[in-house]
């Protein structure tokens, strides 16, 4: 162990070794306990690592060593065999210790599952098996709002991806990358998802992620330069007819990818907010002083009425948000359990599930930002020291909650409640 390595932190090799020797958990409860162990490790020096802003190589290795990257994998391929209701909780737990790493785990699990939703059964079996056997961590150059990744046919049974993506979460530290682009030369804008090895000349990272929050998520831009992919790896396309089996936004089951992703976001928002309250609690119970000029003065900050009331309010709101998030996670779980094999979900069922997810997005966005900002009111001026790092929770939430405007989720929910309209699938619904 290096003299600079702090025992028990993410850079301590013995931490990784212990997980590898223990093997994968075999029950939902054990998986969540494993996520908690990872979260505890990350929380030890999360503020320091956020301040340094280094590429999270060791952090991603921790996710791989712990087995969390395999959580959704089929058991027959030595995966964890868990469903999304457990995956969402695991994401939330990890984000509670470190928001950036919770986000990386969340995106990896989404990209791992994408082929299961939009690909063929053969593709799902083949690609998931390969990813699990190689213990790959997945990044993704997927940003439908930036439709600047073009796909053309080369005449030799291959597709060629070229273009630029402004955001590419986790790509720099990934083993493989999910690409998404628009096929050229057809009457409609047909999107194609695929998977490619990350380390190749045609994938060129800009290393320009310099935002105020999610500093370790490696979400910078990437240039894609003539990356070749066989037609057989175009998720959900018939390699013989070269036609989509199901256009993603027009088929209810394929479009269930979008609420699945949106609930991933809400769970790491919730984890970050819970982490903020954890850290604030540590500070208030050990550092914060009672205010001596308010009348009916208290000896300890923990006896102050307004501090107790504020913590009580935040605890209640986050507890309610967790219950809502768990209920929505069960809705996603049940949708895939009921319709994953036949892919026969109705537009109505898909839309109702999407509105459960939208409800969580609204609640976790507003509650998370309120908690991450409000903790300073109950910790005091000294907690704003940069070395304390309490601000990282608000910064993380503020950055990612701008992913897509929550006001549109509120409008969507209003139309659902007032007019009984389920939402039309979009790339953000």
UniProtKB/TrEMBL annotation:
GO molecular function annotations of the record: 3-methylbutanoyl-CoA dehydrogenase activity; flavin adenine dinucleotide binding
InterPro entries documented for this protein: Acyl-CoA_DH_C (IPR013107), Acyl-CoA_Oxase/DH_mid-dom_sf (IPR046373), AcylCo_DH-like_C (IPR036250), AcylCoA_DH/ox_N (IPR013786), AcylCoA_DH/ox_N_sf (IPR037069), AcylCoA_DH/oxidase_NM_dom_sf (IPR009100)
Alphabetical list of SUPFAM superfamilies matching this protein: Acyl-CoA dehydrogenase C-terminal domain-like, Acyl-CoA dehydrogenase NM domain-like
Entry keyword Flavoprotein: yes
Gene Ontology biological process terms, A to Z: L-leucine catabolic process
Keyword tags: Flavoprotein, Oxidoreductase
Acyl-CoA dehydrogenase C-terminal domain mapped to chain residues: 263-403
Oxidoreductase found in the keyword field: yes
Record's signal peptide: none
One Pfam family named in its UniProt record: Acyl-CoA_dh_N
Name used for this protein in its record: Acyl-CoA dehydrogenase
Domain annotation Acyl-CoA dehydrogenase/oxidase N-terminal: ranges: 46-127
């Amino acid at each position: 162990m290096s003299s600079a390595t702090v025992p028990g932190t993410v850079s301590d090799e013995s931490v990784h070794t212990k997980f590898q020797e223990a093997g994968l958990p075999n029950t939902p409860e054990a998986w969540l306990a494993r996520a908690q162990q990872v979260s505890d490790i990350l929380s030890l020096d999360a503020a320091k690592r956020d301040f340094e802003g280094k590429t999270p190589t060791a952090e991603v290795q921790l996710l791989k060593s712990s087995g969390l990257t395999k959580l959704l994998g089929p058991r027959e391929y030595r995966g964890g065999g868990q469903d999304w209701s457990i995956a969402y909780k695991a994401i939330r737990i990890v984000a509670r210790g470190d928001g950036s790493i919770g986000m990386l785990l969340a995106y990896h699990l989404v990209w791992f599952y994408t082929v299961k939703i939009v690909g063929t059964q053969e593709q799902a079996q083949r690609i998931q098996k390969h990813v699990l056997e190689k213990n790959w961590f997945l990044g993704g150059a997927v940003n439908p709002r930036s439709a600047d990744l073009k796909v053309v046919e080369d005449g030799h049974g291959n597709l060629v991806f070229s273009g630029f993506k402004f955001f590419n979460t986790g790509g720099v530290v990934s083993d493989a990358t999910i690409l998404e682009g628009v096929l050229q030369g057809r009457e409609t804008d047909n999107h194609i998802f695929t998977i490619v090895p990350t380390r190749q000349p045609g994938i060129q990272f800009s290393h320009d992620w310099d935002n105020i929050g999610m500093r370790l998520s490696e979400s910078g831009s990437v240039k894609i330069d003539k990356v070749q992919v066989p037609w057989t790896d175009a998720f959900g396309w018939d390699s013989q007819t070269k036609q989509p089996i199901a256009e993603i936004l027009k088929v209810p089951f394929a479009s269930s990818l979008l609420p699945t992703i949106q609930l991933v976001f809400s769970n790491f928002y919730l984890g970050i907010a819970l982490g903020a309250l954890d850290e604030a609690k540590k500070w208030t119970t050990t550092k914060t002083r009672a205010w001596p000029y308010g009348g009916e003065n208290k000896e300890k900050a923990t006896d102050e009425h307004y501090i107790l009331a504020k913590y009580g309010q935040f605890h209640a709101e986050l507890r309610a948000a967790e219950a809502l998030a768990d209920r929505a996670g069960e809705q996603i779980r049940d949708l895939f359990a009921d319709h994953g094999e036949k892919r026969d979900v109705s537009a109505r069922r898909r839309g109702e599930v999407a509105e459960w997810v939208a409800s969580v997005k609204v609640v976790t966005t507003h509650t998370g930002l309120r908690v991450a900002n409000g903790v300073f009111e109950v910790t005091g001026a000294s907690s704003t020291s940069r070395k304390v790092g309490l601000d990282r929770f608000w910064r993380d939430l503020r950055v990612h909650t701008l992913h897509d405007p929550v006001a549109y989720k509120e409008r969507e929910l209003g139309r659902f409640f007032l007019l009984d309209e389920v939402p039309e699938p979009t790339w953000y619904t």
